[in-house]
Fold this protein.
Amino acid sequence: MYQVQLLDAFKTAKNYIQDKQIAADLGIPKQRISEYRSGKRYMSDIQAVFLAQECKIDEKEALIGVHADRTQNSHIKQLWDEIAKKLNSQGNQLHSLGLVAILGGLSTEVKAVAQCALCTLC
């Protein structure tokens, strides 16, 4: 899961030893980090962007990663992965930010929008 990698990167970047230090920075209960790590809960977009900024990780990559984590549908997860690969291969910055903004608010139409975005990026 991408959010676990993001948490580990933040922990390393800050030289933290315990997850409760991450929780303090995010302003959440320490058990929430355990829930993120186990997949019981998923971090918000705001939390993912905050962690990415602090780790010097591309914010767009972080958003795509946590959205892929959140979906339970394997086909939708595959679409998110394809979008991430296309964006990384093209270095497309403006389109990717817009794409993430569009896809972030949709749940039932994600498949159609993702397919359209993939066609546009090709």
Remarks:
- The radius of gyration is 15 Å.
- The mean pLDDT is 82.
- Helices lie at 2-13, 19-26, 30-38, 45-55, 59-70, 74-90, 94-104, 110-121.
- Residues 73-122 form one domain.
